[in-house]
Specification:
globular, binds iron/sulfur cluster, 3-stranded antiparallel β-sheet, about 220 residues
Length: about 220
């Protein structure tokens, strides 16, 4: 338990600073529109990390993820995230919609970098409001389930650096579900032997690994 508390505290500190960075860009962007390029930068970084470690980017590297976990968690009712938000139809639909909108808006504002930057700031603001509403209704990471960067990280990183469960050690205490920021629930993959957790939304955050009292989980 002491090990888990220390690990959680360390992760929270990193997420707190990333959350502050997120707020600074969100507010500062309205005064300096070039800060809006933070969105495409995160997109490239998220996909880059995804090719190597799946959704590891969304753990504490992502400023919005940090903001969600540290600033929104206390206000969230911690309900089960509805499956709809993790489903392919919403993810593909939302990604396609955003890509189409981004293309149209960039063409419309081309070649003014300030106007394009302001479009990204507006996009960041609208998606943050949406994320806050979903956090207040369900759980703080509901937005992360269909966030285009997260979905792309999931798809390009499927099978990379997988979490594994030793079914013989697991007692189904469900602690791994309770501490998981995105409600993967590693215990659900328990069968006979060592099983791979195939959920591409795993953030590789290690919270479940450190919290498991039976040491049944590892990467
Ligand atoms: S925390 Fe460990 S023992 Fe408990 S359900 Fe998860 S894997 Fe099983
Ligand atoms: S399954 Fe474990 S490592 Fe993956 S996101 Fe959940 S708590 Fe983190």
């Amino acid at each position: 338990m002491e090990e888990f508390k220390a690990f959680e505290k360390n992760r929270k500190i990193k997420q707190f600073f990333m959350g502050l960075l997120f707020l600074s860009i969100l507010i500062g962007g309205w005064f300096w529109p070039l800060l809006g390029y933070f969105i495409p930068l995160c997109m490239f970084l998220g996909i880059g990390v995804g090719l190597w470690r799946g959704r590891k980017w969304c753990d504490w590297y992502c400023p919005r993820g940090g903001f969600n976990d540290v600033f929104l968690k206390a206000a969230s009712p911690q309900k089960e995230i509805p499956k709809f938000f993790k489903g392919l139809p919403l993810r593909i639909g939302f990604l396609s919609f955003l890509m189409a909108m981004m293309t149209i808006q960039i063409i419309k504002r081309w070649p003014d970098p300030y106007k394009i930057g302001m479009f990204f700031v507006v996009l960041l603001t609208v998606t943050t409001i949406l994320g806050i509403i979903l956090a207040l209704i369900f759980q703080q990471r509901t937005w992360c389930c269909f966030c285009p960067i997260g979905s792309l990280g999931n798809w390009v990183g499927r099978g990379k650096y997988p979490l594994k469960i030793d079914s013989k050690l697991c007692t189904e205490c469900k602690l791994c579900y309770k501490v998981c920021p995105i409600q993967v629930g590693a215990y659900r993959y328990k069968k006979d032997g060592i099983e791979t957790i195939k959920d591409g939304d795993c953030l590789k955050c290690q919270m479940c690994v450190v919290s498991c009292p039976k040491k049944a989980l590892k990467f």
